[in-house]
Amino acid sequence: MAEKKYNTGFVLSGGGARGFAHLGFIKALNEEGIYPDVISGTSAGAIVGALYADGHSPEDILKLLNTGNRLDFMRPTLPREGLLSISGFIKIFRDCLRATKFGELKIPLYVTATDINNGKAVYFSEGDLVEAVSASMSIPVLFQPVIIDNIQYLDGGVIDNLPVHPLENKCRHLIGSFVNPAGYVEKLSGLINIAERTFMLSMTKEITEKADKFDLLVAPPDLIHYGILEQDKAKELFSLGYNATREKLRDEDIRRKLSLHQGIATDF
Predict the structure, then answer these.
(1) Is the CB of residue 40 less than 8 Å from the CB of residue 11?
(2) Which of 37, 54, 115, 155 is catalytic?
(3) 9 touches 36 (CB < 8 A)
């Protein structure tokens, strides 16, 4: 069998504000001595992956992104190609990063976006970092497409919301965080809420199709109660990801797969 290029790969799904759960997921793994040698992310997972690969801790990323209000990140725009503009987010994100190019990151990173001209997923791993992440997080209807080299890009989750593909057959261990659980929602109203729900439902197939590719896949079911624009719930979402990951790590079979010592510290 060919030797794997990396020991551990993290795969982070899209999910808007629910992506704060990725930070809790990473913190719980780091506490067990598990760190990624490579990261693949879509949308919110691309944001978290880029900041973490840039050298920021999960707690620092939470502070960086949990400041101000929603309008600091996105603003209403004329609804020609999208209802909201992410220009505010691009400025904040660029100010937070030390790296400007993929090659300057401390950890290799793949960012998934959807090429809507050719109808395919594209996995960026070189070039301008902010440009690729902005393309990856441009949710259809809500945000305007991002144009790179005359190609229009939208959220990577349109085609690949749990982007394991760039890491397949390259890692001894694959660990994933999926933050788009499907479940019953009692009432939907307003264009943005309906667009959000429609987009989230289109991505739920990912977890059933790809779960067996992972040594550990965390998908907190309680995330169904949070919207993808609820940035003000960042700390709650962080805790959900953290607690769900710690619970998974209590499973002896998972610990054996990840070559961890038996037992896990009790909650504090």
Answers:
(1) yes
(2) 155
(3) yes
How far is it, in rounded angstroms, from Cα 160 to Cα 146? 17
Q: Give me the residues paired with residue 85 across strands.
A: 75
pTM as predicted: 0.87
Q: What angle do CA 19, 21, 41 make, to 5 degrees?
A: 45
Output the CA–CA distances (angstroms, integers) from residue 100 to 50, 51, 54, 129, 200, in the order listed. 10, 11, 10, 6, 30
Quick check: is 177 catalytic? no
**Of 13, 43, 136, 138, which residue is the catalytic one?**
43
CA distance 93 to 108: 18
Spatial contact of 110 and 123, defined as CB atoms under 8 Å apart: yes
Q: Are 125 and 110 in contact (CB under 8 A)?
A: yes
Cα separation, 203 vs 253, in Å, equals 28
In order of 67, 86, 257, the CA distances from 174 in angstroms are 32, 31, 10
- Pairwise CA distance, residues 209 & 223, whole Å: 20
pLDDT digits (tens, 9 = 90+) for 193-233: 666 666 666 666 677 789 999 999 999 999 988 877 788 89
In angstroms, the CA 47 to CA 29 distance is 18
Closest listed residue to residue 157, CA positions, set 210, 199, 124, 119: 199
The yes-or-no answer on residue 155 being catalytic is yes
Could you report the per-residue pLDDT of 133-153, keeping only the tens digit for each? Answer: 999 988 877 788 899 999 999
